[in-house]
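Contributing new complexes? Match this layout with magnesium ion.
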Amino acid sequence: MGAKKYTILYIDDEPHNLTTFKATFKWEYHILTAQSAFDGFDILAEQEVQLIISDQRMAGLSGTEFFKKVVKRFPDPMRIILTGYSELEIIMRAINECGIYRYMTKPWKESDMKKTIEDTLEVYQLRKDKESLLQQLDVANKKLAAENTYLKEEIQQQQPVSTIITKNKAFQEKLSLIQKVATTNTSVLIRGETGTGKELMARAIHEASSRKDQALIKVNCAALPANLIESELFGHERGAFTGATQKRVGRFELADGGTIFLDEIGELPIDLQPKLLRVLQESTFDRVGGTQPIQTDVRVITATNRNLEQEIEKGNFREDLFYRLNVFPILNPPLRERKEDIPLLVHHFLEKHASNIGKRIKKVSSEVMEQLMAYNYPGNIRELENLIERYMIISSGDSLELTGWLPQQKDLPSSDGHFKTMEEMEIHHIKNALQLTKGKVFGTGGAAEKLGMNAKTLDSRMRKLGIRKEG
Ligand SMILES: Nc1ncnc2c1ncn2[C@@H]1O[C@H](COP(=O)(O)OP(=O)(O)OP(=O)(O)O)[C@@H](O)[C@H]1O
Ligand SMILES: [Mg+2]
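Output block (do not edit by hand):
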């Protein structure tokens, strides 16, 4: 005889009937018996039951009265009532009111009872299967919906290719090392000042990996309130906390098979760090409020512009996690340490933004390039990119004009220690104005007007400073 899959609760106030029922069906089912509706309730409160069979006529609560209460508190089990013919009307009302699946007349024949129980439990099983299918469907739908919103957000920011541009020897050597590590599953920690291309690097690593056709899921730990990070990363079960009205699929689950990029990892709250460590070590995690560990196959790339060693000392970052993340460290150098890349980057950005700005600028005069190279870019490549975009919009011809060159005014001593004199600043400023007016000095739209100067004064000033109009 196989495992007894179902439990049946049989209620009758005649002990003899209970004994007979139990003796007849105990080989096939797990049988519980009760001599009153009240005892029946006690059992239901403690045990899972798939089918309740109750006699109608009992002292205390009748069978139908009992079932009316059962429906409210224990809606799950199927219900069968046993009755005599005379009570047909009561029974019919009961069937409508408390979801009784079958009624049987007493005394029952064994074969009838057997068949009824089997039919009823079959319906029970079908209902259960349907419920679980719907639930699976629901989870799948939620995952799909989450992926969709995520992808929509992503596509807006996505760049066509993650080319890292550099001719800096040291950085190039590092990039070829990165190509090698990209193909492994090793965790990578990318460090560097703001705007040095940490996110671009993370994408490049993902694209060079065997996971490139799977998702690259990005989470910015600094952009999320601390109390939401856990459920964002790991998801939550319905009812896990106030407001968790729906099950949520976390980013680690979405990234299964692909890569997760945890930006600003230094901002990950200390109490969540062990959970991340567990994913890294065991590839499992729990949803918030979940009881079943979830398995995930994810490559983890992290980035930070914080000094994590200092954070460890301050007690804000776990040392064990740091070592686990830092298996392959990458440091993106600041732009001021590889100024030779500026011309390449300038042309790259002119190309990159040509279509969205609707202007194709190809020429950059050596003077303009010099000016761009003299600046120190505290905001690194992002700052350079933003500047180029801005000047592209303002430029009227097919060469780049640095109208109202702003950063220059904040220029600190450049890397060679040279601090610009007032005269050099003046020359630049006048040249900028002339560029804007295409060499015109006098009259409306002329450089003098732009600079708020008397035209004759400007003209003599230009001669004194050696500025030619065509320049
Ligand atoms: N070597 C590079 N070649 C081409 N473009 C680059 C390079 N490095 C960075 N960029 C571009 O500069 C911009 C800023 O890069 P990114 O967002 O990756 O920097 P980040 O280090 O993540 O900055 P933050 O610390 O502020 O988050 C992006 O548009 C990126 O495409
Ligand atoms: Mg970034």
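Reviewers usually confirm one structural detail per submission. For this one: The chain has three domains: 7-127, 159-333, 336-465.
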